[in-house]
Amino acid sequence: MKKFWIVFICCVINFAHATYEEKDFSSLIKNSPFPEELTEMHLKLYSGYVSNTNEVLKLLETTKGYEWQAIKRRFSWEYNGMRLHELYFENLLKKTTLSKKSSLRKKIIQRFGSFDNWRKDFIETGKMRGIGWVILYLDNDKLINDWIDEHNIGVLENAHPLLIMDVWEHAYITAYGLNRLKYINIFLDNIDWQVVEKRYQKGKKG
Length: 206
What we know:
Number of strands: 3
CATH superfamily of the domain at 103-204: Iron/manganese superoxide dismutase, C-terminal domain
């Protein structure tokens, strides 16, 4: 019985101090459609979000009152910053095409009238003023291009993110200046549609 409680307490301690681990996207440094220096900087920023998410969790264990509340409100910002970057990098790992026979492509055409219409809508969403993310969502069998302010404002509840594009300045400004449109077109020309298709199939299953 004593051994059981020792094991139980150890498990509780380990759970309480569980941390998020940084995913390895180092292959993007050579394979990304963007300049190596920009990609390296972007990956370092992602690493910071992972570290900060873990730091917030640690601080929540040791703070109280107003300070605890302020840190608690910060969690979704750091956490979403971590997860959105992971989804973004994953849909850029390699360039693949979206087959004309693809169920996702057919759904895009059904929803937007044509693939080009979808792309134009995605681009216009990405050109909006502000910092954040552009997401192609699947929600109840409906496709939606939408915008997230920063990391955590305007997230569509229960919708499945399929394609994620970072439109914070750090994603493009050191390479393309204020020409966000150039960055958007390079992004759209280098998507790993196999990853996006898998997300779509998973989203359809709920």
